[in-house]
From TrEMBL:
Name of the protein in its database record: Beta-galactosidase
GO biological process, one term: carbohydrate metabolic process
Gene3D superfamilies, per the entry: Galactose-binding domain-like (2.60.120.260), Glycosidases (3.20.20.80)
An MF annotation (GO) of this entry: beta-galactosidase activity
Residues in Glycoside hydrolase 35 catalytic domain copies: 11-328
All residue ranges annotated as the Beta-galactosidase 1-like first all-beta domain in the record: 375-476
Pfam family name, one: BetaGal_ABD_1
Keyword Chloroplast: no
UniProt family annotation: Belongs to the glycosyl hydrolase 35 family.
InterPro entries: B-gal_1-like (IPR026283), BetaGal1-like_ABD1 (IPR048912), BetaGal_gal-bd (IPR048913), Galactose-bd-like_sf (IPR008979), GH (IPR017853), Gly_Hdrlase_35_cat (IPR031330), Glycoside_Hdrlase_35 (IPR001944)
Domain annotation Beta-galactosidase galactose-binding: ranges: 505-563
Species whose genome carries this gene: Streptomyces monashensis
Active-site residue list: E156, E232
Length: 585
């Protein structure tokens, strides 16, 4: 067995200096059948290590219910078999542009702002989760013949809080549950972040995208000894819906990587391969500069990240620039690239065969309707990702008054007496036209992704303040939620009817006749916003707002012949809407 330790100036493998050339690859953002290919791509780029987060909310969707925690263990086994080391970042908070930063919504609803502190109620849940998770990590440590050589304590805590005792509790828990490899923290290279986020006796690392010398000088003021490592070298960036597609010049990124290595430091490329936030798990940020208190900025489904290995697993120009630099640090010639995964042989157009309105889908797959004086939040209804229909009566007779929603998160399509009356958002919470009574008002409220970074972490979704007619609260609300997890059991119970003449919102069902199954992209021209599944696999959210214009379909999801397609359209689609189509990547 080997031993990995932290020396005074270097990482040591069996007592000899070693430099970690790592790349981030999230097992939960890559189809399992493609793990080996993506790991081989990292090796071909010149990396010797892979780093991954672990999303708690994916694996424990509700209290007492666990879902494939063993996936992490299978991934770590694949890492070892592909000849790489592994860095694991189990959180419990991970950021990662992932829903709620990886924390379960039921947890943050229960503990509120006491999350990520020494609060006993919060820590009791963390202990129970780690006791379930860590058996996937502990036997796979380097000193036991596995690939894992470091484990992170929390994640960028210094940009959030100052309860270093909370970090100490987590470090103690990791040790108590059998983690023997070195622990580390990672934070921005700023004094307040390193002060709040580091722990005595635990390796401190820094995250940045440029100015390596300045970042490492800041780290050295706090830690005069220990190996230097950039735990997140941001070689690309992520996109927001309605924003621009972000790219970074490959030559400029390569020079920033060279500066890190010239400083004698180890590095982890974030991301080496970003993958996809399948299943509607993409998170969101708050704009407004450093305070992160501004408008919601939902993350797109693609997590391509402008990474050196793109969303389809193919090398980019950045890959080749990085490979040239990293080749100088290997012990021999770099391996050749693995064969490219199979690609869809020919385009395929969907044949849509059935439709069910939103009310029908909600009544079939949704939860129980709840009648309450005030609107319940998504969390109170047990909804993580999806939508809620709120219904309320405007008493009458009364003259027309403005109708508005207080504390709306995030988007509501509003109907008055069955007629579409407008779309409300947090920034525009009032209908343009006043509403007279009596009237029945329905609000179909959709979560666009929970905040994954900053002080608004854990904020509730839905109507969190109330529905107002003029200044009067409307009481007696009926609410019913539809969680995306409900589609895991299929849609056979939904009574589908013929297609509507107009592009009405609802669930569309159809087939895609595939010849030569392989990696593909799904385009939905004229569709507005919603979610897509192929053969029961959730591809994620689509949105005509851009910048993402198609959804990546992993080849292993498709099969020869007919493939089942579900499209949940949440708004009315354009008059010139066309059938969804698959194209080769």
């Amino acid at each position: 067995m080997s031993e990995f330790t932290v020396g005074e100036s270097d990482f040591l493998l069996d007592g000899r200096p070693v430099r970690l050339l790592s790349g981030a690859l999230h097992y939960f953002r890559v189809h399992e059948a493609q793990w080996r290919h993506r790991l081989a791509m990292l090796r071909a780029m010149g990396l010797n290590c892979v780093e991954t987060y672990v999303p708690w909310n994916l694996h424990q969707p509700r209290p007492g219910t666990f879902r494939d925690v063993q996936a992490l263990g299978r991934f770590l086994d694949a890492v070892r078999e592909e000849g790489l080391w592994a860095i694991v970042r189990p959180g419990p908070y991970i950021c990662a542009e992932w829903e709620n930063g990886g924390l379960p919504a039921w947890l943050t609803h229960e503990v509120g702002t006491r999350a990520r502190t020494r609060d006993e109620q919060y820590l009791s849940h963390v202990r129970a989760w780690f006791r379930r998770l860590l058996p996937e990590i502990v036997p796979r440590q380097l000193d036991r013949g596995g690939a894992v050589l470091m484990v992170q304590v929390e994640n960028e805590y210094g940009s959030y809080g100052s309860d270093t005792g909370h970090l100490g509790e987590l470090a103690g828990l990791l040790r108590a549950e059998g983690v023997t490899v070195p622990l580390f923290t990672s934070d921005g290279p700023e004094d307040h972040m390193l002060t709040g986020g580091s722990l005595p006796g635990v390796l401190a690392t820094v995250n940045f995208g440029s100015h390596a010398r300045v970042g490492f000088e800041t780290l050295r003021r706090h830690r005069p000894e220990g190996p230097l490592m950039c735990m997140e070298f941001w070689c690309g960036w992520f996109d927001h819906w309605s924003g621009d597609h972000v790219v970074r010049d490959p030559d400029e990124a390569a020079e920033a990587l060279r500066e890190i290595l010239d400083a004698g430091a180890s590095v982890n490329l974030y991301m080496a391969h970003g993958g996809t936030s399948f299943g509607g798990w993409a998170g969101a940020n708050r704009g407004g500069g450093e305070l992160h208190e501004g408008p919601l900025e939902p993350d797109v489904t693609s997590y391509d990240y402008d990474a050196p290995v793109d969303e389809q697993g193919l090398p980019t120009e950045k890959f080749w620039r990085f490979r040239e630099i990293l080749a100088a640090y290997g012990s021999g010639p770099l391996p050749e690239l693995p064969p490219r995964p199979s690609v869809l042989e020919a385009p395929a157009e969907a044949s849509l065969t059935g439709w069910a309105g939103r009310d029908t889908v909600l009544e079939t797959l949704g939860g129980e309707e709840r009648a309450t004086p005030v609107p319940p939040s998504f969390e109170e209804l047990g909804i993580t990702r999806g939508l809620v229909r709120y219904a309320v009566e405007v008493p009458g007779p009364r003259q027309p008054y403005p109708l508005s929603v207080r504390g709306l998160r995030d988007l509501a399509v509003v109907y008055v007496d069955g007629a579409r009356a407008g779309v409300l958002t947090e920034e525009e919470p009032a209908l343009k036209e006043p509403v007279a009574g009596p009237a029945r008002v329905e609000l179909w409220v959709e979560s666009l992704g929970r905040v994954n970074y900053g002080p608004r972490l854990g904020e509730a979704k839905g109507v969190t303040g109330g529905i107002l007619h003029e200044r009067q609260f409307l009481h007696g609300v009926r609410a019913r939620g539809l969680d995306l997890d409900a589609f895991d059991a299929g849609v056979d119970a939904v009574p589908f009817g013929p297609l509507p003449q107009e592009g009405a919102p609802g669930l569309y069902r159809g087939t895609l006749a595939v010849r030569g199954a392989g990696d593909a992209r799904l385009e939905l021209p004229g569709w507005t916003r919603g979610f897509v599944w192929i053969n029961g696999f959730g591809l994620g959210r689509y949105w005509s707002a851009g910048p993402q214009r198609s959804l990546y379909v992993p080849g292993p999801v498709l099969r020869e012949g007919d493939n089942e397609l579900w499209v949940l359209e949440l708004e009315e689609s354009a008059p010139d809407r066309r059938a969804p189509r698959l194209f080769p990547v």
